[in-house]
Design brief:
- It is a multi-pass membrane protein.
- By secondary structure, this protein is mainly alpha-helical.
- Helix content is about 85%, strand content about 0%.
- It folds into two domains: about 190 residues, no CATH class; about 240 residues, no CATH class.
- Helix 4 runs antiparallel to helix 5.
- The relative contact order is 0.11.
Length: about 475
């Protein structure tokens, strides 16, 4: 049993990191070409709608999807119940956005948003049709198939968006390509899942999953509203181009974090659920994941900070220079997000959705307070506020993990300190190594090489446990 779980966990991590990395590379390359063709105002208009779309998607994906995975004695009726519930939610959310589109356009005083909302919200219905199939693959830990589907979908979306952008569709190239991409994903999930719903909806099954799922709904709603408050406020109070700069900077800052968040969310939650009755194994797994996550994500984000200017100027030209400082600040904010993901998944696997909801309410309350204080100071100050909120949120997560799982705060902090110190040292060396190089492309290359070599050399010099975990993964791959 333990060996089987380790094999599933290992290959789950491999395939999810492969999927996430491949997706980010594809989206990164497509994004470079798109940013060269489109204007900051185009991204600003799509950013104005992000709060409505993200909230809607979160309501579909965060609640009963996770309840289905967390439930140990799930049946065919459970799957069908969640399927029909998701469809109803998806249709209702689309209709709400469809009939609200004139008011959204009026709120921002951008008339094109009325038609744009009606098109860009279509994927909500498509997403609701495929969530059970997605959960089924996750429960079976068949992340290989999910990875293939995601990569194929990203390629189709990227090709269609580039074609339409070069054909002069402007902002509509983003809207139509999202519909094409989600349609492709829905078709592929239905084709490969080998599952069809029963013609039955069980209120008993619904009520059993509602206790957990409803709290996930609430947490997802809070998370979505808070994460998109910035685009809402910047779009309302500042120029559309300012929102475009923020949207691009935010997108690039999230690239490495999204890779880890996707992999960690998809793999660690089912892994923790498998051993949810064995606290000792859960705690051991938690420490390893925490150290390994920090070991990978900390240096990547620090490298992004050092190389932010040459990256932006080299990739998408100097018309986007204003987003350099925003990218650097946001990287410092997002560096802690994967750490929070590990903590939250641990608590959710124990069935403590009530605690995660309390944590979300507390963190979002602090976040809104900081946001209100920084709005008068401008977009840069608002982003700096995110760093403060991220640090406080991480400490809150660590505290509640101690309360529920009795994992000492000091032991959690000790897990994070070594990779953080290695990363800060690497950042300093990389900065001085590239500061006198005038060519942006050469600075990126030299900075990348110097940063990676320095980081792994320091980690090896101090015999870091994180590096040992990495070698363990490599050795497992050879032995499996």
């Amino acid at each position: 049993m333990a060996a089987s779980l380790q094999r599933k966990a290992f290959w789950g991590m491999v395939w999810n990191f492969a999927e996430s990395f491949s997706l980010q590379i594809i989206q990164f390359i497509i994004g470079i070409f798109m940013a060269r063709i489109l204007q900051p105002s185009d991204y600003g208009m799509v950013g104005m709608l992000s709060i409505f779309l993200t909230i809607s998607n979160m309501l579909i994906t965060s609640g009963f999807y996770r309840a289905l995975i967390q439930k140990k004695d799930r049946t065919a009726i459970d799957y069908s119940t969640v399927f029909y519930f998701n469809i109803v939610v998806g249709i209702i959310l689309y209709l709400v956005l469809f009939f609200s589109s004139p008011y959204i356009a009026l709120f921002y005083n951008v008339p094109i948003l009325e038609d744009l909302t009606k098109v860009i919200a279509i994927p909500l219905i498509l997403n609701s049709l495929s969530q059970v199939q997605n959960a089924k693959f996750a429960i079976e830990m068949n992340f290989k198939m999910l990875s293939k589907i995601s990569i194929i979908t990203a390629i189709i979306t990227g090709i269609s968006s580039l074609y339409m952008a070069y054909s002069g569709f402007g902002v509509w190239s983003i809207a139509y390509s999202s519909v094409i991409g989600e349609s492709s994903r829905c078709i592929l999930l239905w084709f490969f899942a080998n599952w069809t719903p029963l013609w039955k909806f069980s209120w008993k099954s619904f009520r059993e999953m509602f206790s957990f799922g409803s709290k996930m709904f609430a947490s997802g709603l809070l998370e979505s509203i808070y994460n998109n408050l910035y685009t809402l406020i910047i779009g309302k109070k500042f120029a559309t181009t300012e929102l475009g700069y923020y949207t691009r900077a935010n997108g690039y800052a999230q690239l490495p974090v999204a890779t880890f968040n996707n992999a960690l969310s998809k793999v660690t939650f089912p892994m923790f659920c498998e051993v949810q009755k064995d606290d000792e194994r859960m705690i051991l797994l938690y420490h390893k994941l925490l150290r390994f996550t920090a070991f990978i994500i900390f240096p990547i984000m620090m490298l992004f900070i050092v190389l932010a200017r040459p990256l932006i100027l080299f990739m998408i030209t100097d018309k986007w220079e204003s987003c350099v400082i925003l990218l650097q600040i946001l990287c410092l904010s997002y560096v802690w997000h994967p750490v929070q993901i590990v903590n939250i998944n641990l608590l959710q696997a124990k069935g403590r959705a009530d605690v995660t909801l309390k944590i979300d309410i507390l963190k979002k309350g602090i976040g809104v307070l900081v946001l209100c204080l920084t709005i008068p100071l401008g977009v840069v100050a608002m982003c700096i506020g995110l760093i403060v909120v991220s640090l406080i949120s991480t400490l809150i997560n660590i505290y509640f993990t101690k309360r529920i799982m009795h994992i000492e705060i000091l032991s959690q902090v000790k897990d994070l300190c070594p990779p953080l110190l290695y990363s800060l040292f690497m950042m300093i060396i990389t900065y001085f190594a590239t500061s006198l190089i005038p060519q942006n492309g050469l600075r990126i290359f030299v900075g990348g090489v110097v940063g990676i070599v320095t980081y792994f050399f320091v980690a090896y010099l101090f015999r870091s446990k994180e590096l040992q975990y990495l070698f363990e993964f490599i050795n497992k791959k050879k032995s499996i």
